[in-house]
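User: Quick one: structure for sequence A, then sequence B.

Assistant: Sequence A:
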Amino acid sequence: MRFLRNHWFDIGFIAAIIIGVFLLISNVSGIQLLLCINLIALFLHQFEEYRFPGYFPEMLNSVMFSSTQPDRFPLNSNSALIVNLTTGWLFYSLAAIFAGNAIWLGIATMMVSSGNFIGHTFIFNIKGRTLYNPGMLTSVILFLPISVCFFYLVIRSGSATPLVWIAGIILGIVLNYIGVLKLVEWFKNRNTSYVFSRRHFKSDD
């Protein structure tokens, strides 16, 4: 478990390469292709946040929560693992696998991707008075265009009924709020032993 907690984002990066190769030799297309690419984008996004440059934990805790313990509060290495593997890996993978049979899942995950774009591009930079933060690059060059293409394709094809749109939007809100914000809140602990290593700090790069 300790290895997974320290290297889940590295595993995701390897998974992104494997899925990318699979897509090159397969005949996946349309909405499913976009959802598979969105999953790859998620892995690369997490790699940018936690490995290179990797100081997202410090930025989030210090800038967004004014934490005096940015190495563990409120986000810690355990809650980061839980949030990213459940709200991220699980739902993005399910959306890619079921694709056309569960458009509502795709809509929900694209809302999470769009939320990441808004958060990294505007909220984090404005509050932190910065021009860049870990996760912003992949949000701009991957999440934004993928989301736009997905919603355009779904609307143009008419493959989502009003009920599907409602279900997808509601789940998207739930994932953004409960699957991210509330999970961090529920697992916060000033005395936790799940501390981020020094490489997650910009000042120690």
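Sequence B:
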Amino acid sequence: MEAIECIKGRRSIREFKPDTVSPQVIEEIVDVARFAPSWKNTQISRYVALTGDAKKKLADVSFAAWQGNSNIVNNSPVTVVLTYVKNRSGFERDGSFSTSKEDRWQNFDCGIAAEAFCLAAYEKGLGSVILGIFDETEVAKAINLPEDRGVAAIIALGYPVNHPDAPKRKEVSELLTFMS
């Protein structure tokens, strides 16, 4: 699959077949996602793949603000919690911030990694959706996240029931400004 085809073809999938996704396929996806760029090559993104009881526990405790995400997680064969190593991306070695964006680079780097993960999954015939409405404290407890890590996103993963058409996109003229 060509890169442009992959970018234009990937969709957020919220309904999955019950088919199992093998650990080997997940490892192959992370093997690709690890090449996503990051601040000063800090490579802060970490992936926790949940199935079975661990996935159910996450779904039960993490989505009080949006029950729809709990349903998506329960329906997915695998759910990946995208975490990051704190205080590296956007920081200097002495612990000070490198830019006025302060620690927001952590989530920026994880966003790049999440999309690389989802594109690699799509290339393998899998569907995914990046979920952002969750209780970070409950997620951290559910997966026994170490103190030096934060939660960036949750990605539901599996073989899609269907492949929806692309939603309407804004025209390039609305998105791009040239200046000289």
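Residues 47 and 82 are 5 Å apart (CA to CA). The chain has one domain: 14-161.

User: Thanks, that's what I needed.
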